[in-house]
Write a structure and sequence with these properties.
homodimer; alpha+beta; 4-stranded antiparallel sheet; 3 helices; 11% helix; globular; DUF1989 domain-containing protein (chains A, B); DUF1989 (chains A, B)
Chain lengths: 214, 214
């Protein structure tokens, strides 16, 4: 099924095609599952308070409260206002990144040297979030599901290695408030083991909200 | 001399008292030096495009382009729009943090268990930036001068240890565009080796801009 701008139908698996993105409401109490159907594919995740999109996922708050840069069950993901947006409730991979911003035209220009760069996850997120009133300057560091970014503790050097996820691996979150969630099938070759694959997602549980845009 | 809201007088050393903050314009081409006068004191640094404060320092862009989480000379600090805001041109310490958000009331509530928490660097930055039209929800991960946050590469665990800075140590930046810079003398005990000390700063070079607020 193609991507909705209305709340996803519970239990339905939605497809994000390679190098694209989607945004949708998730009600407090619902469970969001992000699935890597083919393996070795990253999905950038953003979350905003549905009722006030000035409240947004914050890597800095989350890592500070966790005292850890690698997150998994049962870690909470905090907002810039120190409220819990999402809580990780299942994780078959255990390796995700929360340091790097979504790949963008500038990423492809600066890191890859592309002359006609793809808009990347950044552009895909901006387009998907535009109907929810989120401007692209508000896109922060994403929680990058399945992204494999080891750190050298002595030098601080980071590497972007192929994801450890295998076909069918997934990570699930419970929403702790009504949210706009945005997801991508990541557009950067290095992040995805050299090829572009889709991402699947599913929302379970009864939606408490209707689309405020309608 | 007390903290200005107009451009700092070149060559003058300004004092940020313990647990407080300041914000001021810095012209393209000027050099900003942040000094730890007593040793073992952190200063959170934020930078915004003076002419459009929607453009703001970005840890995620900077770390991605550097492929490193520990920055020093001659690393550039990028904005959310992938422009260089500042370039590190001198650094007598070499250990700074760019992962964690400024300490806040919530930090003291969640990590320290304080019942009447201080407003922290976050509150100090918000107050200092308010005259420049920056709302507190726009405060991102800061470049935390002298903050010592080692990472365990295997587990991702991070520790907040006393800064390595000694009395008189400093870090200098050249502005690559006209900026609003905000600085603090950090308010969190753990970050500052257990005591609260001032921060000094100095701007050198001819100001090209006048205070747009006047």
């Amino acid at each position: 099924m193609s991507t909705p701008s209305v709340p996803p139908t519970p239990g339905t698996v939605y497809v994000i095609p390679p190098r694209s993105g989607a945004a949708f409401p998730v009600s407090k109490g619902q469970r969001l599952t992000v699935i890597d159907p083919c393996g070795s594919q990253v999905s950038d995740l953003l979350a905003f308070n549905l009722h006030d999109t000035n409240e947004v996922i914050s890597s800095g708050r989350t890592l500070d409260y966790a005292s850890r840069i690698f997150l998994t069950t049962p870690d909470p993901l905090y907002s810039n206002r120190s409220n819990v947006l999402l809580r990780i409730v299942a994780d078959t991979v255990g390796t995700h990144d929360f340091l790097l911003t979504p790949c963008s035209k500038d990423t492809f220009r600066i890191i890859y040297g592309d002359t006609e760069p793809h808009r990347g996850c950044f552009g895909n997120l901006a387009a998907a979030l535009e109907p929810f009133g989120v401007e692209e300057d508000r896109i922060p560091v994403a929680f990058n599901c399945f992204m494999n970014v080891p750190i050298d503790a002595a030098t601080g050097e980071l590497k972007v290695l192929p994801p450890k996820s295998k076909a069918g691996d997934h990570i699930s979150f419970v929403a702790e408030m009504d949210l706009v969630v945005a997801l991508t099938a990541c557009s950067a070759l290095q992040s995805n083991g050299g090829s572009f694959k889709p991402i699947h997602y599913r929302v379970d549980g009864t939606p408490q909200i209707t689309n405020e845009l309608e």
